[in-house]
Amino acid sequence: MSRRLAALVEGLGLAAALGLLLGAIDTLTSDTPSWRAFGALAALDGLLLTVISAPLVVLIALLSRRSSPRWALGLVPLLILSGLLVKGLTEGLNEGQAALLSQPLPRLRGDGGPPGPVVLITLDTTRRDALSQMPQLSAWGDAGLRHLQATSNAPWTLPSMASGMTGLPPHAHGAGARRHDAEHAPRIGLNAELPTLADGLHERGYVSVAVITNPYLAPRYGLTARFDRVFDLSQEESWARAARRSSLARLFVDPRPANAENAVHRAMEALDRLEGGRFFLWLHLIDPHAPYGQRDEDETCALPTCWDDWRGARRAKEPLDPSLLTAIRGLYDGELAELDAALAPLLARLSERSPEALVIVAADHGEAFAEDGVMEHGEGFTEAELAVPLLLRAPGLAPTTSSRGVCLSGLYDATLSWADGDGLGAWEALGPHTPCPASSLLRGEEGSACTLGPARLIKIGDEERLWVDPLSSPAEPEATLAALRACLPPPMPIGEADRSEDDDAALRALGYVD
Q1: Which of 170, 294, 402, 494 is least surrounded by CB atoms within 10 angstroms?
Q2: Measuring CA to CA, which residue among 234, 240, 343, 232 is closest to residue 291?
């Protein structure tokens, strides 16, 4: 073997060995969140290094030897068969998934007469002020009811959407409670005995279909367990996001996977098959959730470096460099713009072909960019985390802007009230502010809060803090404070839950698990 070939073989051999070493890192245990995060990415890079380098080392070594051992010659067909096996498994998985997604939807109940269909579109991690970056959605909302003071019941997805689906605050439904008294403990799902919005609509003759992209909304967590059909796209998209954070894997995946486009396409296919009947369609889009995608190769805030700086500063509770914060916010705004473009065909289709439908667009929670010292979400009960957009379109609903404080948990009552022909119930445009209790944090000590219009009382541990919107102070401060204290819920209870390895991988990709 020539020196050049020997050096090449040695180099590739070192790469393969490094890949195995990186993969082994993921098997080591440590209580340090940064180590666990590194281990997850190291495993992905290690796997790719091993897969890419090992076959090349073997082939080059075989071709460069004048007399190869018999066992080495057997590696050639073994490598070929392994490649075919992997290719076959991949194709089989893709075909199986396509077959599952194309199965016929359940037979429609009812005759399609009034009340009409219900379409719920929830946007993950979307601040109330995000509509300024979403002109098409904002224009669509101008033709219906726009709530300017809608508040979520929790600063992260599982307890927030469980409140919307049950009409209960988090401390009452328990979804999202920690498995034991630890910051990153597994979370429990929704109690199977609690009735959900899908159950209530089933009783009224509706077929229910969900298209979801967040693993916390999967049937195993209870929110979609009794839907007639669930299209769960969360695992695929979570792995794509994890790959975007890996230095090697980013070479093999689209840096901007068309998550919203795929989910919207699936929802529109469902609409085509459901048209003419009484149905409930829930579409949840996770695109604005971190890690935010890089849209341009010339972006100064590129993943994974920018993301690591951002996540590291959040964990260390360190001030973020203003230029990095601006760049991060720019990526987030870009996610919103692309989500707006992906939603446009669906909104147009609903306006043209389903004018009899109740269409609701809301967010599960917001996103903080260093407001009150909080980054992302799930760390507190700040305005950036809890204030959400809420838009509604329905037959006979005049264009209206409401400043009435309403709660995301009102989704349950408002939808069933409309299905009964009694208006929008808890979400009517006129009326007093609705108290909105909130609890359940992803990180840190558990706490709770209550929002009443422009005021919020927050309690974490023994510390109590009052927040008041500087642009809209309450008319009767003392009465407002008394009402806030009266509705302040207890912290989330400690529960029991199991979580699969697939859950861990998907949730780690989204930053829910370190």
Answers
A1: 494
A2: 240
> Positive or negative, the Cα torsion across 379, 380, 385, 388?
positive
Q: Can you give the pTM of this predicted structure? A: 0.76
Tokens of 62: 């075989």
Strands 455-460 and 463-468: antiparallel
- The residue whose two tokens read 């998209």 is 237
Residue 186, pLDDT > 60, answer yes
Q: Report how far residue 188's alpha carbon sits from residue 174's, in angstroms, rounded to the nearest whole number.
A: 8
Which of 3.40.50.2000, 3.40.50.2300, 3.40.140.10, 3.40.720.10 would CATH assign to domain 118-236+278-288+359-507?
A: 3.40.720.10
Give whole-number Cα distances, 86 to 46, 83, 348, 368, in Å.
18, 5, 42, 42
Q: If you count them, how many residues does the chain have? A: 514
- Per DSSP, 442 falls in state S
Per-residue model confidence (pLDDT) at position 104: 56
67-108 residue pLDDT tens: 555 545 455 555 555 555 544 444 544 444 554 555 555 555
Helix (H, G, I), strand (E, B), or coil: what is residue 128?
helix
- In this structure, what token pair is assigned to residue 60? 């080059």
